[in-house]
Write a structure and sequence with these properties.
Blueprint (H helix, E strand, L loop, with lengths): L27 H13 L3 H8 L2 H10 L4 H4 L9 H20 L7 H4 L13 H36 L1
C-alpha cells in the first residue's frame, strides 16, 4: 500500500518591519561561500567594493570621510582596519539613505516644480510707470557713484598723510 506524500506545512518565519543594512540574512549556500572566502582571506563585500567604478567608490569614500584621491584605486582588503570600518559604516549609511528614497518618485518634476506664469497686464500706464522707475534707479545710481567718488578721494587724502 502506497502512502500519499504530503508536504510539511510551511513554518512562519518572524517578519521584521525593516532589516538593517548590516544584518546578514543569508541562506546555507551563502554561509558556505562566506566560509570559503574567509579561508582564502577574502570577503564578498571586498569583492563587490573592488568591482565598483571610480564614481561609486568616490561616493563611498566621501561618506567614509576618506580622501578619494588617495584611496580610489586601493582594494578594500589593503586598507587598515579603521579605514575598512569607516567604509563599512559609510556603505550602511548609503544603503539606509537609499531606503529612505526607495518609494519616492525621483522624476525631474519632483525637484523642479513648474512655476505658474504671471499674467501679462496690458496697460498704457505701464510704460510710463516703468520709465519713472528707471529714472529713479538712474538717479539713485548717480548719487551712489558721486558718494563713492567722494569716499575714494577721502581715502586717497588719508593715505597721502
Amino acid at each position: 500500500m502506497r502512502q500519499a506524500a504530503t508536504k510539511p506545512a510551511p513554518t512562519a518565519l518572524p517578519l521584521h518591519a525593516t532589516n538593517a543594512a548590516n544584518e546578514h540574512h543569508g541562506e546555507a549556500g551563502q554561509a558556505a561561500i562566506a566560509a570559503i572566502r574567509s579561508m582564502l582571506g577574502k570577503s564578498s563585500a571586498a569583492s563587490q567594493y573592488d568591482k565598483l567604478n571610480q564614481q561609486q567608490r568616490a561616493m563611498i569614500l566621501f561618506a567614509a570621510r576618506l580622501r578619494p584621491a588617495k584611496y580610489i584605486n586601493m582594494p578594500l582588503l589593503s586598507l587598515t582596519l579603521e579605514e575598512r570600518e569607516a567604509i563599512r559604516v559609510a556603505i550602511i549609511a548609503l544603503l539606509d539613505l537609499g531606503k529612505a528614497f526607495g518609494c519616492v518618485p525621483l522624476s525631474r518634476d519632483q525637484f523642479f516644480p513648474s512655476r505658474a506664469l504671471k499674467p501679462v497686464v496690458s496697460s498704457q500706464a505701464a510704460p510710463v510707470r516703468e520709465r519713472e522707475v528707471n529714472n529713479d534707479v538712474d538717479n539713485e545710481l548717480a548719487a551712489i557713484n558721486r558718494l563713492a567718488a567722494s569716499l575714494s578721494a577721502d581715502i586717497n587724502e588719508i593715505e597721502k598723510h
